Description:
Blueprint: H1 2-17, H2 19-30, H3 33-52, H4 62-87, H5 94-101, H6 107-128, H7 130-143, H8 145-148, H9 150-153, H10 158-186, H11 190-218, H12 224-235, H13 237-253, H14 257-263, H15 266-289, H16 302-324, H17 335-353, H18 359-382, E1 398-406, E2 412-417, H19 420-441, H20 447-451, E3 458-468, E4 473-481, H21 482-493, H22 496-509, H23 511-514, E5 520-525, E6 531-536, H24 538-554, H25 557-563, E7 566-570, E8 574-577, H26 581-589, H27 596-604, H28 608-611, E9 614-618, H29 637-640, E10 645-649, H30 655-662, E11 677-681, E12 684-688, H31 693-703, E13 711-712, E14 717-719, E15 725-726
Antiparallel strand pairs: 1-2, 1-3, 3-4, 5-6, 5-7, 7-8, 9-10, 9-11, 11-12, 13-14, 14-15
Amino acid sequence: MAAQKAFLNNFSVKLANNKKLFIISCVLSIFGMPMMVLGKVLEIYEMEQSKINPEIYQYTGYEYYSVISVAAMVILLAVVIITAFNIFHYLYSRPLVDMVYALPVTSGQRFTGDYLAGLLTFSVPYIISLIPSLIINAVAESSIPYWASSEFQNSISSLSLIMQAYVCVFLIMLMLYTTTVLVLTFCGSIVESIGYTVIINSVVPLVMIILSMFFEYSVYGSSGGISVSHLLKCTTVIGGLGIMYSLIVDLLNDTNLEYIYDIISVKWVIAYLVIAAAVFFLAYFLYKKRKAEDVTKPFVFKAVYYILVGCICFCMSSGMVISFSSEDSGIGSCIPWIISSIIVFFILDTMQNRGFKKFGQGILKYLAMTGGSILVFMIIYQTNGFGAAFYVPKAESVKSVFVSYRDISGTYADLSTENNEDISEITDIHKEIVQNYSEFLDTKPSMYDRFNYTPANSTNYITITYDMRSGRSVSRRYRINNDQYIEICTIGCTNQKNIDYTTDNLKDCYENYSKSDNPYNFYIYDRFGNDFERNISSNDLNNLLQAYEKDLKNASADDIMHEAETYCTIYNSAPVLTTFKNTIEYLENLGLKITDEKSMERLNDYPFSQTNTISNIFSDMSVSESKYIFPDMSIEDSVAQSENSYSINLKNKHQKLFIEMLIHAQPFYVTDDHNAMLIIYNGQSYVLPAEYRSYGENFLKSLNSGDYSRYYTDNDYTYSDDYYDYRF
């Protein structure tokens, strides 16, 4: 009972000593989130009034409320740090520490009471400030229609967003306060405490970022940047501030609310609380080990000093490594980083030793820390991340695989499969990618070339994520060559989840119109981007999308990737193939029928003399190393530098034969027949199938018929006012 009373007395005294900071926290909390919510409400109110009567509405200056709110929350974070210093200030005064340590409470009770007193100083006012925010939200929902509408709230209510913002800020303050208390327990003077509060909240996250990014550069295919992003969000104050920034931006812009819901999850809250608890118990442990005579020491626990200074040396060493790995670099490029690291290290070491009496030891410590840091980088580099660059999971150990890429139409696609055959094909492609990289390493490339390795004929990125049967996840990101890209597209085009993803996205694009009773001005586009429109009802729109979904599900991989030609595109991104009978029939019933004659008529409506368009034609694809020819393929040097590659500044005299050739070209066509031609016109790529090659040859022959002159120059290209023919 006596111990409990002593604990409560100590706690109440510390709480009373923070009365001024408590009042300041109250004021700042009221001007924090409530002002943010009020500013957003006034913005919506102003928008509503401008619609009702644009002549009489008054400007509310709502954006100033947001500025006030952000400023108040930034100052509140500073108050959190000041509160920790104020609570534990006795640790830096010998008379005070002797008096406090003499009180009849255990060190554990004293630390817990002090910690809770500081925590309540800023957390109670902050929690109370939730009340005015809820009142403002309730008034807005009852009086401003748009505030409560589904259009504004999307998949998450304004109330839920406010609550999540409050939780996020509270956790940031909790982590910042606990981290500051940790610094106060291992530092022996106020100067070091201030400096290392900044260091621990900046350098530690920076070490995570640098280590992850170097791992990503050194380990081919590594997606460490994604992993470190999640790690930072769950473990550091900076990560929490990043989430809070997203919340504030989206609260102000009422966008991406579904994305916000995914970020502020129970898992994130639990992870953040676990890390904060770990920091608390570390501070508790160090506090109990701290003695009264440790006052005025730069560091009570030197091991912590070496860890933090080692982190700083690690960050500075990364600059040396990056400079050395840059193009045309040498040891000279590292000198600025070496000088900077020496200056920073010896400033900290001199402060630690209170002078230069251990300068010789400082040199050895600097060399050891810097050399050790560089050694870590080189081990990761030389071992390819301890072999991670060459790791490909065995197909039988994979439960499911997810591949993110751009499909043949250029839109984002997600391939997700648990099919053993698909998994085996994807791992085979993965093995081929890794094998190509291994062969590249056999050439002994420089560090710069290795960090900037790009496979031959590669423009397409994929991200592969394996969910293993063991429960862990493996993720890689690569640039892949043309043939690997087509193999991935072939697997994905008939994947049910990918089809669902495509059709759901298409439905989302038309969602507002499909729910409306008003006719919708609907567009389709021919192969050359010419639009055709018709007013259709919401019922027709829904039926059309259902027909498209049915055709897509019934199509085979050969239909989509190799055999079918394009009839038109919906929403300028979803191709309707000539085999999509249900969709074409419904379009034609609506009066939207595409014919070559209509397309030619539209193409002839724009004289080449007015558009001044340059067209590229690659007529000799036999020199291509790729198995497949397709519109957006990466053009290899062997193709681009061929004598049969042309760049033509189109004029009126070219128009007839050029359109006769172009009308047979396809924008989403894949073939392994190298007699096909590749055409780039108006920024769009096309394949002229081999069976129509004669149209391309007729056009190219007309250029050489004597109607156009050619002038060769030393720059290895052919020039005239009408016709360019140069090597790419």
